[in-house]
Amino acid sequence: MATNAYETITLGRADGIVTITLNRPAKKNAANNVMWSELLATFREVAASPDDRCVVLTGAGGDFCSGADLWAGDDAGRQHQLARMRNVGDVAMALARLPQPVIAKVRGVAVGAGMNMALGCDLVVAAENARFSEIFAKRGLSIDFGGSWFLPRRVGLHRAKELALFADIIDAAEAERIGLVNRVVPDVELDAFVDGWARKLAAMPPIAIAQTKRMLNNAMNVTLEEALDDEGAAQTVNFGTKDTAEALAAFTEKRNPVFRGR
To answer: Which pTM was predicted?
Structure first.
């Protein structure tokens, strides 16, 4: 069920799946100050909700997000630029800190901060009509919304420099070839495909999934010894949960487990 209690996004919940839709289609869902604030509040709300098992982030009107609205008529002009960028950084960090798995469902343009918002999700599924660009340089800007961190981890340092310095637009097929996205599907199949993935993720054990997500996100920042210690600590937590006991019982009884996040 969706709610329109927001000015720039819509929020829907069904069967443990939260769908967050950027909703400024006339601006190709460019993010103004209101959207940044609403996204920050929503990400923090979802992070604290034990009933929310998976998040789908998408855009209204056939586009994902055209980045920050540089011509917004809000209070951006009265903010110190560094303070404004720290607000944007807070949104990127709140997205990254979501314990739930997050799928970016991308149609149309995903450029600038919009591209990096997609890369900040755990999985990216794109329609064949999707287009991606680190457009910043063509706007006289440098990369933001975590792109300097996400991009080289997705495609390697030299490919990241090519994308960021030339600021070219690439299509979905090229994005898949270089590893920017997980899957490219026909537009008519996108909703069903993402819904299928979201339902599978929502049925997974939340505590175990959250720990796996955290460890993978930290993988390039720790030594092998630290990773092994972290894995041991995570498994110790898992074996103390009812979900792991349920998984073992379901395996023995030859049935599907029902995980409850405890």
So the answer is: 0.93
